[in-house]
Amino acid sequence: MESMVEARHCAGCGVGIQIEDPKKPGFVPSGALAKEKIICQRCFRIKHYNEVAQVSMDDNDFIQILNEIGATKALVVKVVDIFDFNGSWLKGLHRFVGANPILLVGNKLDLLPKAINTNRLVNWMKYEAKQLGLKPVDVVLCSAEKGTGIERLVEAMSTYRKRQDVYIVGATNVGKSSLINRLLKEYGEGDTELTTSRFPGTTLDMIEIPIDEKTSMFDTPGIINRDQIVHMVSPEDLKLISPEKAINPKVFQLNDNQTLFLGAMARIDFVRGDKQSFVVYASNRIHIHRTKLEKADELYLTHRGTDILSPPSGEKASMLPPFRRASFKIPPGEKKDIVISGLGWITLGTAGAWVDVYAPEGVSVLIRNSLI
Ligand SMILES: Nc1nc2c(ncn2[C@@H]2O[C@H](COP(=O)(O)OP(=O)(O)OP(=O)(O)O)[C@@H](O)[C@H]2O)c(=O)[nH]1
Ligand SMILES: [Mg+2]
Q1: Mind listing the pLDDT tens digit for each residue in 181-240?
Q2: Which domain holds residue 318?
Q3: Which CATH number goes with the domain that contains 57?
Q4: Predicted TM-score of the model (pTM)
Q5: Residue closest by Cα to atom 14 of ligand 1
Q6: Among 123, 130, 133, which residue's Cα sits nearest to residue 97?
């Protein structure tokens, strides 16, 4: 793979370069235009000062890009964040990609507990994809961060692309650009480095990376889902909420009428059912507090934002959208996860349970077959 980016587009995020308005996307000081590879001021700041990437695409821009893909013959690599599978799924992709094959990639494998059974996880993803109306040609797990699974991914891409272009698509923040950087690092030449950041909306336009003389791989901007928790918390709290390394599942043996708080981000009431385990999969830095259901309201009112119920801490806890309740009545038998999109999930025992979950309004809370 050779790395080369068209002139007058930022090599980090793909945005069109301009020298007129420092406040608008794509700005560079005019002196920088002489350089062979141009990096916009925003990318420079993200890279060197970890600044928040503010500019974002609207859905129409994204749909236009997807339509473009549908009109060409290519392999579509759909990337999801395996820690936030449902939140990062990106609905309706199959309507746009036309007859093109889709390779489904579960990235951020390094965040799951080390003991995970990856075969089972792949089958789980195949099943869930089918339920969601997608039939990928294959499913690959990887970690752009650690380099796990990259060889498998390269093999699968070369099998299924049949010498055609490859488009890397997915929701914002799933790690598309990180994945391409990893591919370039291990298989490429040159020093192209795409801009990545913990904040959504980093890549702003398509970026072409030639694979050989005839074909290319394209990084694309991720679509933004306003309901994701990342848009509701401050940058500092986002750091605490997003896991950075393998999650340590935390096991609680609960009786009914007990409650778990995940910081001030969510509340899980075990309303009725036999004693069973509640296994919490969330960032290791979210404080989990257990209490009696009858005390939960009062505790939340008086202690949210304190050491007991944080993150978010202090004032920021009360700036979250108000809690909304979702009720689940789970029959005995199968192992289920209750997912709080972007925050994590709780795997219940198999005794059957009535569980009420409170999460900030807009955050989707759902139930699925257990992933682990
Ligand atoms: N733990 C972990 N983090 C990852 C991995 N891949 C990417 N990340 C992190 O996820 C965040 C988003 O990565 P990007 O590569 O910018 O994601 P993107 O999909 O290109 O995002 P947009 O350009 O906004 O659509 C960054 O903080 C990355 O460091 C991974 O395999 N494991
Ligand atoms: Mg990107």
Answers
A1: 999 998 887 777 999 998 888 998 899 999 999 999 999 988 877 777 888 898 889 989
A2: 238-369
A3: 3.40.50.300
A4: 0.91
A5: 175
A6: 133
